[in-house]
Amino acid sequence: MRVLITTTPGTGHTYPLVALNWALQTAGHEVLVASCGPGLALGEAGARTVDVAPGLSLEKMVGLLAQRHPEVAGRLLQEADGAGYLEVVGGAVAAALRLQPEMVAAVIRTAEEWRPDVVVHSPLLTPGMVAAAKLGVPAVQHGFGFLNPSAELMRELHADLFEEHGVDLPEVRAVVDISPPSVVPTEPGAWPLRYVPYNGSGPLPKPLFDLLNRVPETPRIAVSLGSGPVPGEAAQVMERILATAPKTDAEFVVVLPRVDLEPFGSLPDNVHAFDWVPYSALLARCSAVVHHAGPGTALGAMAHGLPQIMPVFKGLGRPAVARIVADRGVGRAVRPEEVGPELLESVLADEGMRTAAAEVREEIRSMPAPAEVVGRLEELVAGA
After folding, report:
1. Residue ranges of domains in the chain, CATH in brackets
2. Residue 176: how many CA atoms within 13 Å on its side-chain side?
3. Cβ(138)–Cβ(381) under 8 Å?
4. Could you tell me if 208 and 176 are in contact, meaning their C-beta atoms sit under 8 angstroms apart?
5. Coil, strand or helix: which one is 108?
6. Which end of the chain has fewer surrounding CB within 10 Å, N or C?
7. Average pLDDT rounded to a whole number, residues 345-367
8. Over the range 300-319, which residues count as b (16 or more CB within 10 Å of their CB) and which as e?
9. Dist. CA 151–CA 37, nearest whole Å
10. What is the pLDDT of residues 269-310, one digit of tens each?
């Protein structure tokens, strides 16, 4: 079976696809990834890749969108929630894709030249749906968290692309959902898939190796505020963490990719900072996680049964993610200025939250493994 994976070029949209990629290749299937920028991270995980837009990333796409259509990009930072947010993000990505016609054409052309048996696409990447429809093969939407626009919604928001190619949605479709059902109920007919944490690979510097292999004597708290430059809200949280650390009987491991920590001054003795850490190894010996309400980090914490503290930042779906996590009882959504010793000690002592987190961890472990979903893909293709 030849499987084409197409994904929007963002790490949070790409990493959830790694486990299925591994399972497909282990089962003997041929996988090709058509993406660009961070979407090519699947290549680091063993997939063959085609760079459909060298140098392009989701961040750059949104940057160009902000220049050309500031009102559309601005809505991403508004507080729309639920279905309202899905329309906002879906409309913004459709508008951003219209500004990248060469990338869109390259995704579709790659599919036409390679002739896959099935196209697996991230929810926002409409060219993947169009490619599957043109080839008459099944399209499988692979979710990346708790908030995934439906194919029907994306068809409506990017109708001009479908009309340009003279197609509608593919006749045979499926949806893969990595959200634990008790956190976000699985849509009828969707295929649940166990979430497998992955956030890249690379060599471990000796200080990081030593830290990951040392059992901490006090509670260890992971701090992740996303990738890229630290904006005002995240910088405020970082300052609060550094002020809190000397007053807290805990160890903090801060992960801030591509961020210069020099403006924050010298770090307290119980704070360790790295630009990259394999989350699975880190979270296995943590007691809690402070993060920016990113769906990947939230799911990683759930997979390890850890309580979560989420300073709520504006827009990009983060308020909705924080609400979803808090409603399940496995985390607490707070204002950035609330981060302090009292909050951390309260969460570490919250047995109800720890019990709920353990329940969700076991729920994730009981979800179908990637190899089982490969079997469903095989049946889907055979019956198409």
Report:
1. 1-193+366-381 (3.40.50.2000), 204-363 (3.40.50.2000)
2. 30
3. yes
4. no
5. helix
6. C
7. 97
8. bbbbbbbbbbbbbbebbbbb
9. 24
10. 999 988 888 888 889 899 999 998 889 999 999 999 999 999
- The confidence score (pLDDT) of residue 101 equals 95
pTM equals 0.92
SS3 304: coil
Per-residue pLDDT band at 49 (split at 50, 70, 90): very high
Please list, in sequence order, all residues whose beta carbon lies within 8 angstroms of the beta carbon of residue 166, skipping any fewer than 6 positions away: none
Report percent pLDDT > 70 for the chain. Answer: 96
Contact 240, 339 (CB under 8 A): yes
Contacts with 354 (C-beta within 8 Å, 6 or more apart), sequence order: 305, 307
pLDDT at 229: 45
> In the structure, what pLDDT confidence band is assigned to residue 322 with cuts at 50, 70 and 90?
very high
359-370 core/surface letters (b: 16 or more CB in 10 A; e: else) = bbbeebeebeeb
Give the residue, 11 or 137, on which the prediction is more confident.
Answer: 137
**Bridge partners of residue 49, in order along the sequence:** 33
Q: In angstroms, rounded to a whole number, what is the distance separating the alpha carbons of residues 148 and 175?
A: 10
116: phi then psi, degrees, rounded to nearest 5: -70, 165
Single out the residue of 380, 336, 164 nearest to residue 238, CA to CA: 336
Angle between helices 101-114 and 126-135 (to 10 degrees): 30
